[in-house]
Every structure is written in structure tokens, then in C-alpha cells.
Amino acid sequence: MQRCEALARHSELPGGLTRVYLSPENRAANDLVLGWMREAGMDAKLDAIGNCAGRYEGNRPGSPCLMLGSHLDTVRNAGKYDGMLGVVSAIECVASLSSRKIRLPFALEVVGFGDEEGVRFGTTMLGSRALAGSLDSSVLKTKDAKGTSIEHALREFGLQPEQIPAVKRKRGEVLAYAELHIEQGPVLEAEGLPVGVVTAINGFSRLRVTLSGMAGHAGTVPMGLRRDALAAAAECVLAVERVGRSEPELVATVGRLDALPGAINVIPGEVMFTVDVRAPDDGLREDAVSQICARIADIGHTRNLDVQIEHLQSLGVAACAPRLIEQMERAVAAKGFRVRRLPSGAGHDGMALKDLADICMLFVRCKDGISHNPAESITEADAGAGAAVLLEFIEKFRP
Ligand SMILES: [Zn+2]
What we know:
alpha+beta, 9-stranded mixed sheet, 5-stranded antiparallel sheet, 23% strand, binds zinc ion
């Protein structure tokens, strides 16, 4: 908990927490984490994409590793635990083994990913994608709001972008990836449980919809002759909500809506809105996306509007490996807690790392399910429970 506090002090936002990829605050946080890794008995360095990477050898040097970790970047005005708790808990587990002089039949690696949230460049999971080898080098041309490219920012940070391909790990070098993270939802709190075992990270689809009608004078154009894009968008938002409510595990959200020209006395001629759809089953999600697109097209047709739907990004479900789920459940039970399985509604680095190795996750209860917010809060007891379960999992881990 003290280490989460210490990391939270490195922020560009005075009195709050904002720490984006390759910023001076990011460097200060990395220095702390690399120091803690070394204190815990690990070899630690910053890799070419800006991940803090620590390694604790097994009883035979050079053995494949169990990889642990989470991310060190934050959203704007963030909480102190999303990401950081997973990194400091993993370091604590290694410190415990090293203080007892225990070497396992495999190595342990702890990674503090440099970019998971994607706040600065709008591209998520740069650190884990580099490790998995799925980071296309063209991504490095992506610019932040000030026009600085990722490539340039890496160089300014003292890193060599041409070394990024060397960050990629081979399958077989990594036996599995395990991440501890706050739940970011209310399920564990509602059931009175400190920890939960994740079954899968839900897939998502993102759309951008543009409705074009006709702007006009709010006083002179009769209702029957209007092509009001915002009234149509209102119907679309409700249609998205209806589809989201049609299945218990499905969620669908319109998170942004811009109406043009945006004046009190003008009929809105054009509206852009976004749609975010998530589900623990790819078929269910794809079905929902088709239904949403069909409903929007219908509404546009009935109201004589032009409809344009762009598919921005989609990512399939990242299932946790059944054998790792079982091992994590045994660790939960061994520490005296009731086992509860739950899916993850939010995205995590495991989505990228599943291309490299089997993944699993442990959730720690958070207050009121709040995250991405300064009110994000966990108890010391729950942080302790999470770390104890993670340590049990590590010590009993069987590839
Ligand atoms: Zn996170």
C-alpha cells in the first residue's frame, strides 16, 4: 500500500494522479520500480519499449519463466491501484521467496508495462504487444496531441526503437502469464469476497456512426419537413441500450455524441456518436454489433438520413487457460477464501500476451466497483489477501 502511495506521487496532475507513457513522471516511477525489483533479488532493467523488466532465476539459471505483472501508466485523474497493485504485489512475492532463499524449478519475471491504457498515443498495450511480438513497427509513427511520435518520444526517453524487435519473447520461454488487478466492478464487494478468479477478458467492438440530415432554422422549418440528425441519434442510443440489455453478459454503450452545428436555434444537421460493445463470447458480441448496425440503418432510412458506420477496432475474447484457472482456484481455497469465478469487463495486457503464453488473472475487491477515478480504493487486508493468494499460486505453479 505504501508503494502504491509512493508511485501515486509521480504525477503530472498536482493533487491527483495522471502518469502517461514516456513522461518524466513515468521515468520517476520506473526508477522506483526498478529499485524495488533489485531489492527483491531480481536483475532489473528498462526494455526498449519502456517496460520495467525484472528476473529472478530459478534453481537452474536460464530456465523458462512464469511471468507476472501489470501496468504502470494511468488514465487521466486516475486511482492509485489500477495496474500498480499488480506490479508491487508481484515484486512482494519475489521478495518473500528471495528472503527465504527459495528458488523454484522455473524463473520468475515481473513486468511493469509502460503503456496499457493508451492515453498519450491512443494505442493501447504497446508494452505487452512488443513482448508478444504483435506490435507492428508502423505504430511507432503514431503521434500524441502535441505531434510527437512514439518513435521520437522513445528516443527522447533514452531508448532505441530499433531494439524493439528484441523485446519479443519466444513461446516456450514464458510458461504462463499471471496478473493481479483490482476488479473495477462491484461483484466481489457484493458477495463479500476479497478475491476472485478471472475466467476470460471480454472481447470488444468499437464503432463510429455518423448521421447526416439537414441543418435548418429551428423556428421556420415545420416538423414534418425536418431531417433532424440528433432526434435520430436519440433513437439510436436507445436502440443500442436495448441490444445491450438483451443478454445478461452483454454490455453496449454510447460514450460520446457530438451534434453539429450545435446551436440553440438550429436543427442539428449532423451527429457523430461512438458505440462500444463487450461480451465474454465473440459470437454474442458479433451478433449484437450486427443488430445495432441494422437498427441504426433502419432509423436512418425511416428519417431520410445518410448513415455511415465505421468499425474502429475489435478484439476477441482472451480466455484464461482452464489449468491456470484451476491452479489459481486452489490457491484461493488454500488461503481460506471461497472461490468465485468472474469474467473481466475491462481490457488488460493478457489480451496481447495470450499470443505468447497461456494467461490467468486474479481480481482484488475494490470499493463500490470504482476505477479510473481518484475515489478508487481498496483495503490493506484485501491487498494482503491478493498478494498471499498470488504467492501461493506461484509456489505451487505447475507448467
Ligand atoms: Zn489496469
